[in-house]
Write a structure and sequence with these properties.
Cytidine Deaminase, domain 2; elongated; 8 helices; alpha/beta; about 30% strand; 14 strands
Length: about 260
């Protein structure tokens, strides 16, 4: 598997619209099997699978030393990437409690037809750009610590609805969405603005919240683009100079006519 892929991107600023091909970091699932049981699905950039699995198992205390392993193997087929781990008998007995308390909850294909977005609204590009360029102004925790991610939710007029910061980017999204959910106003959310890159899981979270547009400081992963395209969502990030890189769902923005092809 490649560590990056190529994707056609629409670049929009306040004057021009052009199309270019960008390198996008690849994101794929890696299944970790331990003693013939699926233990975890990890979203990652392909490469170093055996080392990744070994480091993960050390972190989870499935192993303490290399001798705890009987075998460690990698398989890449039509069903995806998987690492199969077999532990020796003594280690298996010692960590049996880890399997009893562990539940596999992540399903990378957990996408319902109900999550496909509609095309009810198109918006101006300028307020979208402004929200990204001024994101740091809404991050007091980052200002004081330089160690926090932000998630900000806007309606279709780009009026702020909800804001959250957290050390974890997933946590920030959950907090911002949760505030509107508890107030029963989540149906007003149109755009999610993130201080991080756009990963597959963040697209999932936005989709479950019925938020069609994700804007971010950093670029999306390949799997994020694939899922967002499937769900008719819009993904864009901040361009080097004032503007947006639009990876999919450009129809939601009112952009200039006279499109310049790549």
């Amino acid at each position: 598997m490649d560590t990056f892929l190529k994707h056609d991107v629409i670049i929009v600023d306040k004057k021009d619209t052009i199309s270019r091909q960008f390198k996008i970091i690849n994101e794929e699932p890696l299944l970790i099997w331990v003693n013939k049981k699926l233990y975890k699905v990890i979203m990652r950039t392909p490469g170093d699978e055996l080392a990744h699995a070994a480091g993960f198992c050390l972190y989870k205390e499935l192993v303490n030393i290399p001798d705890d392993l009987i075998s460690l193997s990698f398989k890449d087929d039509k069903h995806g990437n998987a690492v199969s781990i077999f532990l020796n008998k003594s280690r298996t007995e010692k960590i049996s409690y880890l399997f009893k308390r562990h539940n596999i909850t992540q399903d990378i294909y957990d996408v319902s037809e109900n999550n496909i977005m509609t095309d009810k609204t198109s918006v101006d590009i300028e307020p979208a750009i402004d929200c990204l360029e001024k994101l740091s102004d809404k991050q007091p925790l980052r200002f004081n610590t330089h160690a926090a991610h932000a998630a900000v939710l806007y309606n279709s007029n780009f009026e702020l609805l909800s804001l959250a910061e957290d050390v974890g980017r997933h946590n920030a999204v959950d907090k911002a969405v949760g505030k509107l959910f508890l107030n029963n106003t989540l149906n007003s959310a149109y755009a999610m603005v993130l201080s991080s890159r756009i990963s597959y899981e963040l697209v999932q979270k936005a989709a479950k919240a019925k938020i069609p547009v994700i804007l971010a400081v950093s670029r999306p992963t390949s799997l994020a683009i694939k899922l967002a395209t499937k769900l008719n969502m819009t993904l864009a990030c901040l361009a080097k100079s004032s503007g947006l890189y639009i990876f999919c769902g450009e129809h939601r923005f009112k952009i200039q006519k006279g499109f310049i092809s790549k």
